[in-house]
Amino acid sequence: MDITLLVSIIVVVALLAVGGFFLVRTRSSVAPGKEETKPEVTQEPKAAPPQEDREREEGAVSKPPAHAPPARDTAAPAPAEPAAPEIETPPPSAGRMVRLRARLARSQSSFGQGLLTLLSAKTLDEDTWEEIEDTLITADIGVTSATQIVENLRTRVKVLGTRDTEEVRGLLRDELLKQLGTDTDRVVRTEPHGDRPAVIMIVGVNGTGKTTTTGKLARVLVGDGRSVVLGAADTFRAAASEQLQTWGSRVGAPVVRKDEGADPASVAFDAVARGIEDGADTVIIDTAGRLHTKTGLMDELGKVKRVVEKKSQVDEVLLVLDATTGQNGLRQARVFAEVVNVTGIALTKLDGTAKGGIIVQVQRELGVPVKLVGLGEGPDDLAPFDPEVFVDAILD
């Protein structure tokens, strides 16, 4: 065989062998649909599990994943501490009735304006004077006081010979002030006696507003810079002590109270003792409402006063009267005055009645001045009674 042909055959065979090798490699690694040989993977050593995984393995409670709802706390939450009530600073007593004058004028306008209209008539005959007297009596001034006012007015109108509106108003104003008494002592005694506080007892029948008046009076005194202790001696009604507690907490006045049915005299005694201990200026004792016809209850009220006086003198016994009760209120006042020596009247609901003449009648019959008047439902609607402001309000 020719040497050249032999070399050519050897070269071709070599080339075919090399090409076949590369073809097989390529198909085994990239050909689709063919099973490829997986490379051997060397296992890396495991990393330490994260903290929460370790806790889970050790039985500890782990935090929930971010997407999971928070776990419900099975333990009952601790009760929240009640917020301390905010201490209020009430307005002082000075000028209270002036600020409430408009309210008083609205409630008493029919009384005052009716009298002015009659007195300004062109002819003041007997029928007109009788109508004036009836108007006064209807306003609960009382027959005696009404008769006296009419007689004085008739004399002065006749002497002056004129019925100008302003002059008539001045005449009527003078007569009403005479009946009310401008020189009457209306001061509520609240000054302590050395180391002993002043003591004020609040008395009256059911429904007149004794507890509310007690709370409002505490606001008046705190507004005037006095320190006050309240005694919840109305132990027949649990609601009364709760109500008084609310009033006291608003102005920072401590309240001495006991369980329902406790001896009222012991509560009053402890209240005065607390006042002495605290160095308070004034102790106000709210007593239970009682019918003036019930002898046993009235005697108990006398006992409360006697027990208190073993600790400190009682400076004021304020009888709370409802201005809308009229003549019945006067009968109540007489009985209370006999039992506990009433020193002053607190007249409530004066803004809700046209019968402000009860002030004149109570003072005339009992010789006891009206010292406080309630002119609304607000906490600061109790005011020291000022006769001139009262008369001007009903005549304006």
UniProtKB/TrEMBL annotation:
It is a peripheral membrane protein. SUPFAM superfamilies: Domain of the SRP/SRP receptor G-proteins, P-loop containing nucleoside triphosphate hydrolases. Its EC number is 3.6.5.4. It is found in: Cell membrane; Cytoplasm. SMART domains: AAA (SM00382), SRP54 (SM00962), SRP54_N (SM00963). It catalyses: GTP + H2O = GDP + phosphate + H(+). Residues 369-382 form the SRP54-type proteins GTP-binding domain. One of its GO terms (biological process) is SRP-dependent cotranslational protein targeting to membrane. The chain crosses the membrane at residues 6-24. It is an enzyme of class 3 (hydrolase). Residues 69-87 have a biased composition (Low complexity). Residues 30-93 are annotated as: Disordered. One of its GO terms (molecular function) is GTP binding. InterPro entries: AAA+_ATPase, P-loop_NTPase, Signal_recog_particl_SRP54_hlx, SR_rcpt_FtsY, SRP/SRP_N, SRP54_GTPase_dom, SRP54_N_sf. It comes from the Bacteria. Keywords: Cell membrane, Cytoplasm, GTP-binding, Hydrolase, Membrane, Nucleotide-binding, Receptor, Transmembrane, Transmembrane helix. Belongs to the GTP-binding SRP family. FtsY subfamily. Involved in targeting and insertion of nascent membrane proteins into the cytoplasmic membrane. Acts as a receptor for the complex formed by the signal recognition particle (SRP) and the ribosome-nascent chain (RNC). This is Signal recognition particle receptor FtsY. It comes from Nocardiopsis metallicus. The gene is ftsY.
